[in-house]
Amino acid sequence: DSGVTQTPKHLITATGQRVTLRCSPRSGDLSVYWYQQSLDQGLQFLIQYYNGEERAKGNILERFSAQQFPDLHSELNLSSLELGDSALYFCASSVADQRVYFGPGTRLTVL
Amino acid sequence: SQQGEEDPQALSIQEGENATMNCSYKTSINNLQWYRQNSGRGLVHLILIRSNEREKHSGRLRVTLDTSKKSSSLLITASRAADTASYFCATAPSGGYQKVTFGTGTKLQVIP
């Protein structure tokens, strides 16, 4: 158990819908990362927050947005969902030593 | 493009043999980390090596780092069937913030 929690574990929805994925980082970790992993693919970095502020942006679509709240939990919002958005979405957190701890992921299936 | 690129993309060995995976990266780094991912599961942190370190051991794992060649290798000795997984390297760039970038991974299959 890494200490990073993600909800929900599984999400099945239809094209055009909007979903919110939630992440709670390890206690004390200020950095939160979001990654997308499509079937048999590597991890695609989406976005990073540090203490509530966006720190780095990767290959995140305009239909996707994220935020980190004062209590440091983070949410990833995916809208106008397409079939190709089906993937595992991982949240991770870290402290200054940059060792990154991953949550178990949310498996999103868009039908 | 990915910062870290693992090689080979896939590797199949017999139980008991050693497995070596390589990672190359492009920019200066603060540290490099190796992770394991079992199919469809989250990533498990294996080892972190800092830019001023050349070699690090953890159990059956040995990681080397050559900053002049911008490359790292992960050696798993006396492999077991349970080592079957995908292995990713991740790099944290030097200077600035902590954006950790992952490669595409090496799929390791250990045949009992």
What does this structure look like?
The complex is a heterodimer of chains A (111) and B (112). With 111 residues, chain A is mainly β. Chain A has strands at 5-7, 10-13, 19-24, 31-37, 44-50, 53-57, 64-68, 74-78, 87-94, 100-102, 106-110. Chain A contains no helices and eleven strands. By secondary structure, chain B is an all-beta fold. Chain B has strands spanning 5-7, 10-14, 19-24, 29-37, 43-50, 55-58, 61-66, 71-76, 85-93, 101-102, 106-111. Chain B contains no helices and eleven strands. At the A-B interface, strand 4, strand 5, strand 9 and strand 10 of A face strand 4, strand 5, strand 9 and strand 10 of B.
Topology:
The complex is a heterodimer of chains A (111) and B (112).
Chain A: E1 5-7, E2 10-13, E3 19-24, E4 31-37, E5 44-50, E6 53-57, E7 64-68, E8 74-78, E9 87-94, E10 100-102, E11 106-110
Parallel strand pairs in A: 2-11
Antiparallel strand pairs in A: 1-3, 3-8, 4-5, 4-9, 5-6, 7-8, 9-10, 9-11
Chain B: E1 5-7, E2 10-14, E3 19-24, E4 29-37, E5 43-50, E6 55-58, E7 61-66, E8 71-76, E9 85-93, E10 101-102, E11 106-111
Parallel strand pairs in B: 2-11
Antiparallel strand pairs in B: 1-3, 3-8, 4-5, 4-9, 6-7, 7-8, 9-10, 9-11
Kindly summarize this structure in a few lines.
The complex is a heterodimer of chains A (111) and B (112). Chain A has 111 residues and is mainly beta.
